[in-house]
Design goal:
123 residues, alpha/beta, 3-stranded parallel sheet, two-stranded antiparallel ribbon, 33% helix, 14% strand
Length: 123
């Protein structure tokens, strides 16, 4: 499929696309930081659907930095409000050991069936 050049200059092999790898194939979703990437996700219908589908299937979601803007634009979070169950957000792009540990704990829990609004989300 090709490679993606990241900000450090290194290359990452692309092994799938959003439409060909729906969220039901994965146990959790991590949204990285970066303004350009967040804007691209917000403007991609398939990416928005991916996040909504992950949410209604009660799977863990984590976002750092600008990645949180994608969650807000998808109406999965409202900045300043309490986060939904199983959703983690870091205000900066740094993934601390504590943040990573909580995300791993959420993945081990597998699902968060106490989420609200899942019946009103189109996905």
């Amino acid at each position: 499929m090709g490679q993606l050049k990241v900000s450090t200059g290194s290359q990452i092999e692309i092994d799938g696309t959003i439409p060909a790898n729906p969220s039901i194939l994965f146990d959790a979703v991590f949204i990285p930081g970066g303004k350009e990437g967040s804007i691209n996700l917000q403007n991609c219908g398939a990416a928005v659907h991916y996040g909504l589908e992950t949410y209604i299937h009660c799977k863990p979601i984590a976002a750092v930095g600008e990645g949180a803007n994608y969650l807000a634009a998808s109406r999965l979070i409202t900045k300043g409000d309490t986060l939904p169950s199983g959703v983690l957000v870091s205000e900066n792009d740094v993934v601390t050991n504590e943040f990573a540990g909580q995300f791993i704990k959420n993945i081990k829990q597998h699902r968060f069936f106490d989420r609200e609004r899942i019946d009103s989300i189109p996905a």
